[in-house]
Specification:
It contains 9 helices and no strands. The chain has 190 residues and is mainly α.
C-alpha cells in the first residue's frame, strides 16, 4: 500500500507547481522533486498528471475559504466582500503572479481535457452557488435590489473576479482590484 503522507506531499507540491507554472510547464519529475519523492512513486498514487491536477484543483478550492460565504453570523454583503478581500490579499502577497488556479486551468487546459474541464466547471459552479445564496440572503435582508437575479449576478461576479486577476497580473498592482470592489460592491450591489 502506498504511503498516504507521500501522496499528500505530492498533492501539495503539485498544487504549488501548477499554480506557479501552469499545468503544461509543471512536469511529474518537478512535482516529485518538490515533494521529495522518487518519480516512480507518483504512479503509486495517481494514474496520470491529469488525475493529480484534479485533486490539486479540489485542494485549491478547499483553500478558498468558501465556507465563510455560508456563515450566517455575518451579514451577507459583509462576508461576500470579506471573501474577495481575503482572495485579494492572497494575490497581493504572491506579488500578483499566480491568479486563481481554477481560472488558470480554465484558460490553459480545459480545451484539451474533458476531465479537467468538468472539474473546473464543478469548482466554478460550487463557488457561484455559494455567492448566489449569499446574494439571496442579502435580498431577503433588503440589502440588495429585489429584481437582481442572484444566480446570474453570482456568475457575473465570478467572471469579473477572474478578469480582475488577469488584469492585476498584467499590471502587477492593486488597481484592478480597486475597480472590482468599486464596481461590484459600490455600484452593482449597492
Amino acid at each position: 500500500m502506498a504511503r498516504e503522507s507521500l501522496r499528500e506531499e505530492i498533492v501539495e507540491a503539485a498544487l504549488d507547481q501548477f499554480h506557479a507554472h501552469g499545468f503544461n510547464a509543471a512536469g511529474v519529475k518537478g512535482i516529485t522533486d518538490a515533494a521529495g519523492a522518487p518519480k516512480g512513486s507518483f504512479y503509486n498514487h495517481f494514474d496520470s498528471k491529469e488525475a493529480l491536477a484534479i485533486v490539486a484543483l479540489q485542494r485549491y478550492g478547499a483553500g478558498r475559504r468558501l465556507q465563510d460565504l455560508a456563515d450566517k453570523g455575518v451579514e451577507p454583503l459583509v462576508r461576500l466582500r470579506a471573501h474577495f478581500e481575503f482572495l485579494r490579499g492572497e494575490d497581493a502577497q504572491r506579488g500578483f503572479t499566480r491568479g486563481c488556479l481554477i481560472g488558470n486551468f480554465g484558460t490553459e487546459i480545459i480545451d484539451h481535457s474533458d476531465a479537467i474541464r468538468a472539474a473546473v466547471r464543478q469548482s466554478l459552479q460550487q463557488w457561484a452557488t455559494l455567492i448566489a445564496a449569499t446574494l439571496t440572503e442579502a435580498q431577503q435582508a433588503g440589502a440588495v435590489r429585489a429584481h437582481l437575479d442572484p444566480d446570474k449576478t453570482a456568475r457575473f461576479i465570478l467572471n469579473a473576479w477572474e478578469g480582475t486577476l488577469i488584469q492585476a497580473r498584467a499590471d502587477q498592482s492593486n488597481d484592478a482590484f480597486d475597480a472590482f470592489f468599486d464596481s461590484v460592491f459600490d455600484t452593482l450591489l449597492s
